[in-house]
Fold this sequence. Notes:
heterodimer; A: mainly alpha; 2 domains; two-stranded antiparallel sheet; 2 strands; B: alpha/beta; Rossmann fold; 4-stranded antiparallel β-sheet; 14 helices; 17 strands; 28% helix
Amino acid sequence: MLKLIVSLSPHQLGKNSVEKLMYGVIIALIPMLIASVWFYGWGAIVVSLTAVISAIVFEFLISKYILKIGNTIGDGSAALTGLLLAFNLPSNLPIWLIIIGVFVAIVIGKMSFGGLGNNPFNPALVGRVFLLISWPVQMTSWPIPSPASEKFLGYTDVVTGSTLLGQMSEAMRNGESMKVFSDRIPNYFEILTGSVGGSIGEIAGFVLIAGFVYMLARKVITWHIPISILSTVFIFSGILWLVNPEKFIIPFFHLFSGGMLFSAIFMATDYVTSPMSKKGQIVFGVGIGILTIVIRIWGAFPEGVSFAILLMNATVPIINMYMKPKRFGETIKEK
Amino acid sequence: MLKTFAKGGIHPPENKFSADKKVERLPIPKKVSVPVSQHIGAPSKVIVKKGDIVKTGQLIAEQSGFVSANIHSPVSGKVFKIDLVTDTSGYRHQAIIINVEGDEWDEKIDRSEDLKRDFDFSSEQIIKKIQQAGIVGLGGATFPSHIKLMPPKDTKAEILIINGVECEPYLTSDHRLMLEKGEEILVGIQILMKALRVEKASIGIENNKQDAIYNLKKLVKNYKNIDIVSLKVQYPQGGEKQLIKAITGREVSSGALPIVVGAVVHNVGTAYAVYEAVQKNKALIERVVTITGKSVTKPGNYLVRFGTPIKDLIDAAGGLPEDTGKIIGGGPMMGKALNTTDIPIAKGTSGILILPKEESKRREVKPCIRCAKCIEVCPMGLEPYLLMTLAEKAMHERSEKEDVMDCIECGSCSYTCPSDRPLLDYIRLGKTQVGAMRRAKSMK
């Protein structure tokens, strides 16, 4: 007898898959990895590989033997978390520290909540912030980049220095005029093409923007979160600068220094820990922008974007509760 | 810029294999099973009995309530029995089984192919003729058409919208009708305009049917106040509320009928049936059905008498392919999976789609990654991921507050979900539960 399958519509499914989306982000990160190898040498590869491999191993062990939900490493999310964490680290970080960071990210930040889709906080940032407050010295000794055309750096032969944000923080503490300060730092073209130190993912803003455009074109993410963060940062720091240009630096500095671009494009757009509706995503982005500037200017740490994202992650359930998409026909609803 | 609806939507592969296949007549079978519930509303009341001799087009079951429709014999012959038969819903319902003898038509029906343009009927006469002919919405919803022509007292129809969108992948029956019976459709539209007392009609057609748009644009020059609107190829362009939004820019609010924005929507197939009923006295006894699928050897479009088993249609298309996994009544997005090939074709069957085995199975369900793609594609502005969770957890009061009842079940959310979550299955569950809750409340 003829056996027919009976199920409810739709009978046709699209081509989207979790793997495609995760690998989409990873592909967008590859040019950045190449750029960081160019500037930081072997260190960038050592850190990235260590993070990715240990993330996959931790996820495999936990999903298979503790949660018993089967092997989930195939969906690419563990590799992505590892890579994102690596991009938030200096390229000369000791291997044992990287593994601790990945452990916190994957085991505590993600799997302890039940795995993919259940974690309230961005796991890579949980790992990063844990390392930052536990080993502040190692986490803030940034290698000074050197283009491979001049000297290709080995993992250990780096010279460290402070980041632009660190320098600004110090200048502010010393009461130096921001006008004078901006004159002695590299210009923005140099900053965007990678001549200042920082985490692996903070080098070469142009490459990051290319990754952003790629993800938009592939519909991996939408513009709402990155653009709302960056425009809020620009407007908020712009207002401060207009009020007192001696005390506050021009807004471009905040956009292009530190992890601003990287975090806005790759960290804040994490699906699991960002709001669902477009309206909510904009509120989320505005919140991150404001908090980042507040921490950078008045906080104890020179860089605030990771903390800002984690704080806003905590508000996502409330944002989802109140920021609903516009229902069809709502405009003429009589209520 | 092509017109379209405001938000959401997807673009599944079109797969319109049968678009250039002329409509052919499917031979009348030896026996037909005519279900008495081929429409939304109360099943019709059977008025023939075993052994009665019936003619083609003769009334055999009559309307049995306000929302209900007449049913006429699609063939001539002898009533064999009245019995339960599995129909397109998948359930067994009462049906009139007729043994076919010849093809003798009711005398009142004008069987000539000549185009009859002029008519001189009042609005009431037209509506009565449509009601008697048992016409229902042929786009698939099968709502009795005459009711839509009688707007409530406090409302006024301003525009008649004709749905020639056919946004479901694979299906081509409306497309063929617009190519082959363009002028008849336009006369039907004029009749409907007269019945509704409106001065304006628009035919919405998706831009992938250039030949149909061209054909109707050429013919429409002889008809007043009808315009042809090309629409962007975007599913669900043919959803009633989406189509009204695309053509008039107005949004029908939650729970309201299109008439609140002055619009009445009918399908092109319905307009053709109206032409036949009013101008030729022919009741609704047959329709164009697409038979298609990737492995089907001869996809095509056939004029099929109701009650014909889908088996006959499949045989005409070269037989059931070996890799068949699923047979669907309708399109792949909103159609119903059928469990046998004995099911009779009814008023709402716009197509039979055969899917190969590898496309018939659901994929493994993964956890929700909260990517919000379901929200992006929902044409009603709902949050499918949330509605699914609420249905799973039986939080039906909250579902109602989250407007679950606005869901039009287009399936865009399930289609787009990267984790292959059965979003629409659970939303349907939520809708059923909220519906039951509302009925229970109104009983009190």
